[in-house]
Amino acid sequence: MLPATFKLCAGISYRHMRNMTGLRKNAMVAISHKLSGLTDPGPSSWISQVRRRSSLLSSRIEEEPCSEADLAYVKQGQEALQKSINILSEQDGWQTEIETASGDKVLSKVLPDIGKVFKLEVVLDRHPDELYSELVDNMEQMGEWNPNVKQVKILQKIGQETMVTHEVSAETPGNVVGPRDFVSVRCAKRRGSTCFLAGMSTQHASMPEQKGVVRAENGPTCIVMRPCGEDPDKTKFTWLLSIDLKGWIPKSIINRVLSQTQLDFANHLRHRMAANGELEAAALTC
């Protein structure tokens, strides 16, 4: 069952669904109450940053007319973000999976009803706005710089913050894990200096399961990007990953593959942003 705070967002009665103003008000109040109950581990935490710039989830649902199906996608995206916030706000119980000499770290935790989740924590030498632009505005170009991704395609956009995507992953070296595909709803938000990209699996009529490709499931997932306190041109980058690859794969292999995939992603993103910077510098000298 969905959390009670999101049942309200779903529109329990058709009368409320038709009266979107009342629905938004009640739903956002409920979500704000939920967010206010989160623990605040310290003044530098991203949760406190969001609170100081008003509630993360108090933004209104887009004003343009939406169908019932579109509203369901908006609600799913908000649900993925809310669940991710709850998980990331809990500081206890995380175990280190990998930590590199440069300080990149992948941690994991087993959660009831979700299973094992992974959390990447790295610092990137780029401002959050630049990373947000690359990961959100240029989302469909990810296959150009991340060899673990074959393709990302936006199937549908709903307003400014919600989209449905289809992603195809590449097989791992040695084909230990074959290609997988995902259909996901994504919720992209910028609140003050903090950027978010959350998501979870969904269904879309234009992308049924593909023959010869295993349809995996993910979510809740969330990338959080916020400026470093000591250098605001650098980014504290956190990626929460929850994924079910399906198929008969030993857990030990899954744990190793997912941890390494997160570290690889950080390095590929670094190389992409460095290449972007070189292109920008070359353009200025012309």
- Counting DSSP E segments of at least 2 residues, the number of strands comes to 12
- Radius of gyration, taken over Cα atoms and rounded to an integer in Å: 19 Å
Which regions have little confidence, pLDDT < 50, spanning 5+ residues? 1-44, 50-63
- Tell me the β content: 25-35%
What class do helices, strands and sheet pairing give?
Answer: alpha+beta
Output mean pLDDT.
82
Outline: globular
The helix/strand series, from N terminus to C terminus, equals HHHHHEEEHHEEEEEEEEEH
How far from one another are the termini? Answer: 58 Å
Structure, described:
The protein has eight helices and twelve strands. The protein starts with a helix and ends with a helix. 37% of the residues lie in helices and 28% in strands.
List keywords for this structure.
286 residues, alpha+beta
The gist of it:
With 286 residues, the chain is of the alpha+beta class.
Task: Please write out the topology.
Blueprint (H helix, E strand, L loop, with lengths): L3 H7 L3 H5 L1 H17 L9 H7 L15 H22 L5 E5 L5 E7 L3 E10 L3 H10 L4 H4 L3 E10 L3 E8 L10 E12 L2 E8 L12 E2 L1 E2 L2 E7 L7 E7 L1 E2 L6 H35 L1
Parallel strand pairs: 6-8
Antiparallel strand pairs: 1-2, 2-3, 3-11, 4-5, 5-6, 6-7, 7-10, 9-12, 10-11
